[in-house]
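Here is an idea for our session: we take a single protein and study its fold together. To get us started, please write out a protein record for me. Once you have written the record down, we can walk along the chain together.
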Amino acid sequence: MGGGDKARIRIGGATILDRVLGRLAPQCFRLVLNATGDAARFADTGLAVVADSVPNYAGPLAGVLAGLDWAASAAPEIAWVVSAPSDCPFLPRDLVARLHRARAAAGGQLACASSAGRRHPVAALWPVALREDLRRALTEEGVRKIDQWTARYRLAAAEWPATPVDPFFNVNTPEDTTEADRLATLYPEL
């Protein structure tokens, strides 16, 4: 993508990060960003920025652990953390509620989003109570893939329709950026 933060790419007149935060803020008690590198680059959001505690960029699970650790320390009344990727400009307005409902209905310990027959493991609901299990998996077992770790637990999936736009469309290439901008223009309600 030519360097820089994908989250700062503009889609439909707003950055992807602004779109993600705008979707999640009404659904969550508090928001926090997980980022590697200089946290000051996100100072304009006014949010706490937490870095991975697992060294050498251990992947998205390390970001989940950072969020769980933050919740346990800064907001101990929070039992659940929702994670969302910062490259999905069309996240659903009911992400949190549907993840909770899917988990409860399936008797799951965790829940993730799904659309078009594909799971989206970063758009997920995580219990803070599993943070030490996750830390052990990352630091002692070398687990890096979300699906490898979540397979240990009852994982529920909350399904969303992928039409007219997949809410988990992610921007990974310049072509994706062009397509996302086109979709944002075509469907301004997104």
About this structure: The chain is about 35% helix and 20% strand. The CA atoms of residues 68 and 103 lie 18 Å apart. Residues 6-186 form a domain with the Spore Coat Polysaccharide Biosynthesis Protein SpsA; Chain A fold (CATH 3.90.550.10).
